[in-house]
Amino acid sequence: MRLSIGYKNYLRSLQLLYYLSECGVENVIISPGSRSAPLAIAAGELAKKGIFQIYNSIDERSAGFHALGISIASDKPTVVLTTSGTAVANLLPSAVEADKSSISVIYISADRPLRLKNCGANQTVDQEEFLSPVCRLTESTCLEGFHLTTETELKNLRQKIGEICLFNSGPIHLNISIEKPLIIEINERKKIINQFTEKYLNKKINRTQKTTNDERFFDLKKMKYIDPSKNGIIIVGPYRGLNQNLVKFNNSLKKIQNLTGWPVFADPLSGVNLDLKGLIDNWELIIRNKKFKIHCEQLLRLGPMPSSNSLEKFLEEFSGDQFLIKENDSRRLDPLRKSFEYEYGLTHFVDQFLISKNSLSLSKRNLTQLAKEFLLEGERINNIFKKQFSNNENITECALAYFIPKIWPEKYPIMLSASSPIRDWLTFSGVNALSRRCFSFRGASGIDGTLSMALGISRILHPLLLVTGDLSFLHDFNGWLIENSEKLNLTILLIDNNGGNIFNRLYQNHLKDDEIKKLFVMPKSVDFKKLAEANKVIFKDVSNLTELKELLEWSLLKSKTVILRLKVNHISEIDERKNLLNKIYQDS
After folding, report:
1. Please, what sign has the CA dihedral across residues 509, 513, 514, 516?
2. Structural domain tally of the chain?
3. Which of 345, 367, 508, 527 has the fewest CB atoms found within 10 Å of its own CB?
4. pLDDT of residue 441
5. Whether 266 and 346 share a structural domain
6. What is the extent of the structural domain holding 288?
């Protein structure tokens, strides 16, 4: 019997999605459209069978960032399914971040068949190339129609995708040209799903297990290693490995710190355990202080660079050896091009280091003199913070960065929006930030998709606290259009400084106030309470830091999405920051 085009469209959709489940996919986000109907209906059917969890979002841009959050929290690739045309273009912002952050997201876009290309057909664009500059893999099925794609071709595609998800995490784009008819009769659909269930689903799914084990040939003779007998510093940037490998990462870090006695500068996003010996409080301010002289010969850098201009300047001026260990990323990560880069991860590096040095001859070292000096300086700065903030109820951005890690329960994750919050935490939060996992955009470092990504993380890891400025929040307000967003266990700490306060700090000595507002800050008169009510989200204003602690505890009891809005006066904020930093440098 000759099978109809509609029949084959639906069958191939079931097969493709099933093969993606074998690559580890468990979550699918669907945006509306008719050209993608066979794929969307197939995803819904597989969700009924327990293969997927599916969510919907009418905004493809938000859907892409939501997928980022789910993927980074779950260690598994997430599928985003869209229709054709500009829908595909809306995926680019999240694909850029997925690329730079090495997060696995599989974008599936439906397309018109080749016969409709470049002839003025409605909603037909050259979308197959939209995401190619940032994707690990860009593939199209048969251009004349999905019904002409063979099952063997789909199996080969599964093999390619599986290898990328295992060894080279990042975005993948599958462009599926679908010829009409796009849907078939219910009875025919039931017949297909029954046959499909018998052949595919009545067996255990062989899901791809993601791992960072890499058995590729490795030449120890070509390796360069640190010298534990010399002075050095360990700098830990944002963690890009898998959550399941974080314990191994920390154990390896502990080994290398014990063997060297070196001080550790840890980014809030590093995933480093708080009990690690040698952790330095307020290290960003220490290296910013020109009066504090740093004498060392080596730097061991883990992961990408933290968002610190002071650190970048220090690394640029450093004349000793730099070793950069990467997790889950084979690309260059040193913009200064001064380091020896090692792509197999810290655990592999430490194991090979111990072999090369004969671990039996190595013993634990006490903290170096430099580490002890750093610890004392960090403690001095922390005492200044404590004196400044403990008896002051005023809400400022630096005070929030200092207090929140102390009052948000340990082990509960936090997401920091880009721009001010991530930088303030690096400067003011100290080692208390390391008492839980922290997430942020540190790939492309944009503010796009902040709310959507936080909602995605909170589907997997909750309760989650999102710390965001008002512009970052407004930029992604369409995140509320994601299914059940108001029901997720997410507390949003909304820092309302009436625009991008970071620009006030950057340009106050160079531009007039009205120029800064018009060109950079871009303040908006928004009633956040009404916006929250329109999206059925709980909203509370916070007047001081004591009330903030009480409302954070209250929000946890709600187990729903809650917005806590804190108004910040940018003028007093800038003055406090200046006075605080001047005191640190003058007293040193």
Report:
1. positive
2. 3
3. 527
4. 84
5. yes
6. 226-367
